[in-house]
Design the sequence.
């Protein structure tokens, strides 16, 4: 579903969010007929790409400062924001196939065929209810719960709801038991959830350095006892994030 953007939420919903995944910003207005032609096409592609990018819409009449900031002269004007910067853009109405090609240059299309995984990603708490209501658990139940937990954290879920998902993963004899025990403890710390949610935004380095410094300032023989918060962060960084490699290397140098 598209997000309505104003001057008040632009930084959080576009700039910060673009460090987690690409944000496609559609500048439009009520009086603009071409905008009304383009809008449903973008909505359709957002669903097709299944969460691989964020669709954000800016009403240029209501958010004139943003329109001026981006030097919008004609609409519709569509800009793809990646890592806080404009990666590409186009103006006017384009055919659906052309916009799909435009998106595929920068975005890996996510196709989720597994209904449990789809529910875990889109509606984590609904997955929890479904699993509890079923007489027989699916073979990959613990994996679905882990996916749902991460998705709920990223969506800004409440601590109690996140814990309720975690507790459904066995604390031993499960592929994800280690993760359950790690996060069940970490999530109780002050600002833990918020820090995890901010990891793919502009505060990433600040958060990682904070937890790394705790380890650095702990006597060598006790460092393994304070490493878990940084380890927890690693689970919420993109696998191809260069900082994931950098901080794993830094952690290893402090422990061994």
Sequence:
């Amino acid at each position: 579903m598209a997000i309505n953007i104003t001057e008040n939420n632009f930084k959080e919903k576009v700039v910060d969010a673009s460090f987690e995944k690409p944000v496609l910003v559609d500048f439009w207005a009520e009086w603009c007929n071409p905008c009304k032609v383009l809008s449903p096409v973008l909505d359709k592609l957002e669903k097709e790409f299944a969460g691989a990018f964020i669709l954000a819409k800016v009403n240029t009449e209501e958010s004139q400062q943003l329109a001026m900031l981006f030097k919008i002269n004609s609409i519709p004007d569509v800009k793809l924001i990646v890592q806080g910067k404009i990666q590409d853009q186009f103006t006017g109405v384009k055919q659906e196939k052309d916009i799909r090609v435009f998106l595929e240059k920068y975005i890996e299309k996510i196709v989720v065929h597994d209904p449990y995984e789809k529910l875990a990603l889109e509606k984590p708490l609904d997955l929890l209810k479904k699993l509890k209501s079923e007489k027989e658990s699916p073979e990959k139940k613990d994996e679905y719960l882990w996916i749902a937990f991460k998705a709920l954290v990223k969506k800004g879920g409440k601590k109690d709801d996140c814990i309720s998902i975690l507790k459904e993963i066995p604390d031993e004899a499960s592929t994800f038991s280690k993760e359950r025990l790690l996060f069940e403890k970490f999530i109780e710390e002050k600002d833990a959830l918020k820090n995890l949610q901010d990891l793919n935004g502009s505060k990433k380095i600040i958060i990682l350095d904070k937890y790394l410094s705790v380890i650095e300032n702990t006597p060598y023989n006790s460092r393994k006892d304070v490493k878990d918060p940084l380890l927890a962060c690693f689970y919420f960084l993109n696998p191809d994030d260069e900082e994931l490699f950098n901080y794993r290397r830094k952690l290893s140098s402090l422990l061994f």
Remarks:
- Residues 33-48 form the longest helix (16 residues).
- The chain has 13 helices and five strands.
- The chain has two domains: 3-104, 115-255.
